[in-house]
Amino acid sequence: MKFGVVIFPSKSLQDLANSYRKRYDPHYALIPPHITLKNAFEATEDDAKKYANQLRKVAREFKPFTLKTSKISSFQPVNNVIYMKVEPDSVLDGLHNQINQEFKEENVEYSFVPHVTIGQKLSNDEHSDVYGSLRMQKVEHEEIIDRFHILYQLENGSWTVFETFRLGEEAE
Amino acid sequence: MKFGVVIFPSKSLQDLANSYRKRYDPHYALIPPHITLKNAFEATEDDAKKYANQLRKVAREFKPFTLKTSKISSFQPVNNVIYMKVEPDSVLDGLHNQINQEFKEENVEYSFVPHVTIGQKLSNDEHSDVYGSLRMQKVEHEEIIDRFHILYQLENGSWTVFETFRLGEEAE
User: Fold this and answer.
1) In which band, very low, low, confident or very high, does the pLDDT at B104 lie, cut at 50, 70 and 90?
2) Touching check for B171 and chain A: CB below 8 Å?
3) How many domains does chain A have?
4) Which residues pair with B35 in a beta bridge?
5) pTM summary value
6) Is B172 part of a structural domain of the chain?
C-alpha cells in the first residue's frame, strides 16, 4: 500500500485552496489540501509503525514554524500543476530533508518547492486559461505549523491519516 | 467549526466498507470509513488544542483492544442507516464514555452502538432493497485498534485530521 507524509494547513487556508481545487483539481475529493513532505511510497501496513516511530523522532528535532503563502504559481513547463507558493523556510526545508533521508529508498534529487496544489491534470489550454486568471491574485497568508501527518491510500484512491506528529514535543 | 472524534479501522476494513459506501453513502467522499466516538460538535480552532490535550490524557488510560465485526445491521426504524456492527467491547465502551464525559456539552443519553456506517440517507424503499440484500452477509473481521483521531470539518463538508492519539502511551 502507499504512504505519504504531508502538512495540513489551517482550516482557513484549506477552505481557500478547496475553492480552487473544486474546479481545477481531480484529487479534490481524495485528500484535503496539503503540503507534501514526502511523495507517495510503497510500504506494508506493518512497516507503518516503524515509519511512525522514525517520524516521531524527526518531529522532536524541529520546532513549530511560520508558514507564509504569497502568490499563485505554476510548475509549467515541467507539468501543469498550479499551486499556492509557500515561502522558503529553514525549518520546513530541514523537516523535508530529514524525512526524506530517514526513508532512504528514494534519492531526493529535485529541489524542494513547498506548495499547496490547487489545480492539476489540466490540459495545456485549461492551464493557460486558469493560470492566466489566477496568477495575479495575492494569497498572503501566515500561520504557525506545529504538526505533520503520515497517511495511507485506500483502494479508491482516497487517503486516511495514520498518525500525527507534533513538532518540538519532548521525548516520551 | 465542527470537530468529531473517530477511530479509523485498518485499510482492509475501510476498503470493504467503501465498496458499499460508494453506492449507498453520500458521505463517501467526505470522510474515510470510521467508528464515531464523539458526534460532531461546535468549537473554535483555538479550542482544538485544549481538546487535544484532554484526549491525549484519555488515550493513556486505555490499552489497545480487539475490534470485531460480525454482520451488517440497520438502525431502522430510528433511521435508515445501514452499518457493520462492531461487537461490544469494554475498552471501546470505556473510551466512548470517557471522551463524552470529558466534553461535558452533551448528555450521552443514547446507548452507544459502535458501528461503521456503510449506507445512509436512503429512502425507505432503497433501505429495504439494500438492507434486504446485505443483511445476510457475514463481515467477520478482527483487528487491533491502537489509536483514535480528532478531526475538523472544512466548509465543503469534508473532514481533516487534527491529531492522532495512541492508546496506552506513556505520559510524555
Assistant:
1) low
2) yes
3) 1
4) B7, B116
5) 0.92
6) no
